[in-house]
Design goal:
Strand content: 5-15%
Bound molecules: protoporphyrin IX containing FE
Distance between the termini: 96 Å
Number of strands: 9
CATH superfamily: Cytochrome P450
Radius of gyration: 26 Å
Structural class: alpha/beta
Length: 520
């Protein structure tokens, strides 16, 4: 009896062991890449893949349409380069945030990176030692604790912007460029921009314009057929090589000229406002950086300057557009500012906590028109499987942030501009959810987020406190309602629209007049 029981127990144990092993092997098999299937997507052509189906204009809208047919993860191929489009915020976070150790590389862009040189600044740097060093250079200057150092500069420059556009509403776009450029260049190099034609402003602006074109996915054949970069420049079809050469010089000059100005200023003892490059040089041993460190600092600073220009300008201009279209939102925000700040002073960034409706306007601008609608693509460094879907090593990962921000299940009536979405007890969390997506993912998330939020708050609060933003009038005195049209490219802007400003009170005019004209 005893022996029988023992052997019965033994056979149970063996069965259990075998069953467990079979289960583990099957589990491994079903979750392995062999069983995982590729994500759905439009039908591919041999060799070309989906090249002909990728739209040239505002890709995010097409990808959003495709979501209805193919779902939240879409796989397309362009000349054998796999591209994974993600239309869901949950999946984007599951992959890019939670699995960031393998999703933090950047795609190797032959045109933008190898040929023009945009892979030197850390925005496009591969995930590696140079990228880490550059992020380290900027980490403390752009941490939340450092932000108050910049408040006065941010507030002063946006006040000048408002004062100038009241006098000349047609200068809205150029003034926005000038003031946002002045802010970011001052904190990066200590240099104060002398005017719209200052090369320290025009060069990086041109470099950013070119960046948007050079990095727009699917635009350059050489990105998919890298051998083309070696073709002789006289050959038909090699025009892109001439373009790349011209653009490369602009990137170089835009990055090294202001750096050298800053370095020389330190050497000659010229007083400079605390700035990223100056502090990094001064904190190096003996005040001298190694050649390698200097190079990485130049590119880190260039990334910060570039990152802080067009993105902020896009959001600022979308804000003005939203205000022209939504007078009721303006009135509600003005009532909040009048009640909290009064008319004796202008709002400051330190007032942020006390102005929740003003904050929710900023969030709604970023949701309504995200400045970087497809974020900046990441690249996957090893094969991966997500819920039975195979994601290949080297795939370009494109989070369609525009779609996430216009998903009607999260944002009913998504094309409506409605800051009230963030009212109520969940308001702050709802705002955070927008910012977390609009400013990017995982280890590559935007290092300038706090700085950008400060500049935008200073702008939005100052504008609403001092002026009514109104539609321009036509020759018959009728209001011209602008049609919100946006550019394509990595960073998207509203097309120029007519606008009018009316000062809200004499006190507002007096307060703006007191802002000093020169550098601070
Ligand atoms: C409204 C303003 C801004 C928006 C919407 C924005 C958005 C973004 C996005 C979507 C990315 C890509 C994140 C990813 O790959 O997952 C990014 C990266 C970056 N941003 Fe911003 N940004 C803004 C302002 C700024 C400012 C003010 C700075 C500089 C002070 C800045 C510097 C950078 C840099 C250097 C990167 C590259 C990060 C990396 O690759 O490691 N951005 N930003």
């Amino acid at each position: 009896m005893f022996n029988l029981l023992d052997s019965a127990k033994g056979s149970h144990a063996t069965t259990f062991l075998v069953a467990s092993l079979v289960f583990l092997v099957l589990k491994q098999f079903f979750t392995s890449r062999k069983m995982a299937k590729r994500a759905p997507g439009p039908t591919r052509w041999p060799f070309l893949g989906n090249a002909l189906q990728l739209p040239q204009q505002q890709m995010w809208l097409t990808f959003s349409e495709w979501q209805k047919t193919y779902g939240d993860i879409i796989h397309v191929d362009v000349f054998n380069q796999p591209i994974i489009i993600i239309n869901s915020s949950k999946i984007a976070k599951d992959l890019l945030d939670k699995r960031s150790s393998i999703y933090s590389d950047r795609p190797h862009l032959v045109m933008a990176g190898d040929l023009v040189g945009y892979s030197d600044p850390f925005v496009l740097q591969p995930y590696g030692e140079k990228w880490k060093k550059q992020r380290k250079f900027v980490a403390s200057d752009f941490s939340p604790a450092t932000m108050p150092r910049y408040y006065q500069l941010q507030e002063t420059e946006v006040r000048k912007l408002v004062r100038n556009v009241i006098l000349d509403p047609d200068s809205l776009f150029s003034q926005t460029k000038l003031r946002i450029g002045t802010i970011i260049i001052r904190v990066t190099y200590g240099y104060y921009i002398k005017g719209e034609q200052d090369p320290f402003l025009t060069l990086p602006l041109t470099a950013m314009e070119n960046f948007s074109k050079a990095s727009a996915p699917g635009t350059w054949l050489v990105d998919f057929v890298p051998q083309m970069k070696n073709m002789p420049s006289w050959m038909p079809g090699a025009g892109f090589l001439k373009t790349a050469k011209k653009w490369r010089k602009i990137v170089w000059d835009a990055s090294w000229d202001p750096y050298n100005w800053c370095k020389n200023g330190l050497e000659t003892g010229e007083t400079l406002m605390p700035n990223l490059c100056g502090s990094a040089i001064q904190s190096a041993a003996d005040g001298k950086l190694s050649k390698e460190d200097e190079e990485q600092l130049v590119w880190a600073a260039s990334a910060i300057m570039g990152g802080g220009l067009d993105t902020n300008m896009s959001a600022a201009l979308s804000f003005f557009l939203a205000m022209v279209l939504h007078p009721a939102v303006q009135r509600k925000a003005q009532a909040e500012i009048d009640a909290v700040i009064g008319c004796e002073r202008l709002p400051s960034i330190a007032d942020r906590d006390a102005l929740p409706y003003v904050r929710s306007i900023i969030t709604e601008v970023l949701r309504w028109k995200p400045p970087v609608p497809l974020s900046i693509p990441h690249s996957l460094t090893q094969d991966d499987v997500y819920e039975g879907i195979f994601l290949p090593k080297g795939a370009l990962i494109m989070p369609n942030v525009w779609h996430m921000m216009h998903d009607p299940t999260s944002y009913p009536d998504p094309s409506a501009f409605r800051p009230e979405r963030y009212a109520g007890a969940d308001g702050d969390a709802a705002q955070r959810r927008v910012h977390e997506l609009v400013f990017g993912f995982g280890r590559r998330a935007c290092p300038g987020v706090h700085f950008a939020e400060g500049t935008l708050f200073a702008l939005v609060a100052t504008v609403l406190a001092t002026v009514d933003v109104l539609p321009a009038l036509d020759a018959q005195g009728r209001e011209i309602r602008p049609d919100p049209k946006y550019s394509s490219g990595t960073i998207t802007f509203p097309e120029a629209f007519p606008v009018r400003f009316s000062v809200r009170s004499e006190q507002a005019e007096t307060l703006l007049a007191q802002v000093p004209a020169g550098p601070m």
